[in-house]
């Protein structure tokens, strides 16, 4: 049986979900971002306990098809950008469509209608968040980050970064380093 969970977007969320299920005597066979597979069937009473426990942790058990599909799209994008060692070399639309076994046009229309932004805009926002993380860690230069996230060039990454944040990547990085040096005093 699969359970779909909203706001489950990090490794910490996965740990919380595992713990909540274990507290109810359930053993998940698989826990991914936004979806959990449980070996046994569960009663409505247990399902409601799961719903209550998860809501106390800021998570939401989903029931309707559209909400589940939106969370699956978000989960694929977040996993692809934040938790993969390498972003796919294929077109993002093909990758998402293949992962979810739906036509991309359908996925795109549902996502845009519900979220008010396109999947592409969601991908860009997540890529910029990832760039910010990587700049803060200071382990990679902009060229390496550009390559990792499949930007066509450093200039393209920089332009997109500035468009979203209002700052150039180098100014963002400088600001982060100035803040961290002030915090050491």
What tags apply to this protein structure?
185 residues; alpha+beta; Alpha-Beta Plaits; Arc Repressor Mutant, subunit A; 4 strands; globular
CATH architecture of the domain at 1-63: 2-Layer Sandwich
From the alpha carbons, calculate the radius of gyration and give it in angstroms: 19 Å
Distance between the termini: 53 Å
Q: Biggest β-sheet, characterized?
A: 4 strands, antiparallel
CATH fold-level topology of the domain at 1-63: Alpha-Beta Plaits
Q: Order of strands across the biggest sheet?
A: 2-3-1-4
Class computed from helices, strands and strand pairing: alpha+beta
β-strand amount? 5-15%
Shape descriptor: globular
Q: Any idea of the CATH class of the domain at 1-63?
A: Alpha Beta
Number of strands: 4
**Which consecutive residue ranges, at least 5 long each, have pLDDT under 50?**
none
Query: Residue share in helices?
Result: 55-70%
* Order of SSEs: EHEEHEHHHHHHH
For the residues shown, what is the average pLDDT?
A: 90
Number of helices: 9
Could you characterize what this model shows?
With about 180 residues, the protein is α+β, with helices and mostly antiparallel strands. Among the domains are: about 1-65, Alpha-Beta Plaits, CATH 3.30.70; about 120-185, Arc Repressor Mutant, subunit A (Orthogonal Bundle), CATH 1.10.10. Helix content is about 65%, strand content about 10%. The protein has helices spanning about 10-25, 45-55, 65-85, 90-100, 105-115, 120-135, 140-150, 155-165, 170-185; strands at about 1-5, 30, 35-40, 60. It has a four-stranded antiparallel beta sheet, with helices on both faces. The protein is globular and about 55 Å long.
């Amino acid at each position: 049986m699969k359970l779909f969970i909203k706001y489950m977007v990090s490794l910490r969320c996965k740990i919380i979900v595992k713990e909540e299920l274990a507290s109810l005597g359930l053993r998940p066979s698989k826990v991914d971002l936004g979806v959990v597979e449980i070996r046994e069937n569960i009663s409505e009473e247990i399902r409601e306990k799961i719903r209550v426990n998860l809501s106390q942790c800021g998570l939401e058990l989903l029931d309707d098809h559209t909400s589940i599909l939106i969370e699956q799209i978000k989960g694929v994008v977040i996993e692809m950008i934040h938790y993969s060692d390498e972003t796919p070399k294929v077109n993002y639309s093909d990758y998402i469509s293949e992962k979810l076994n739906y036509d991309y046009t359908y996925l795109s229309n549902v996502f845009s209608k519900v979220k008010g932004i396109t999947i592409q805009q969601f991908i860009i926002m997540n890529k910029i968040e990832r760039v910010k993380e990587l700049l803060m860690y200071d382990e990679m230069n902009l060229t390496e980050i550009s390559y990792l996230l499949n930007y066509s060039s450093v200039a393209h990454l920089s332009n997109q970064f500035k468009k979203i944040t209002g700052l150039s990547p180098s100014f963002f990085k400088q600001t982060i380093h100035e803040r961290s040096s002030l915090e050491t005093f």
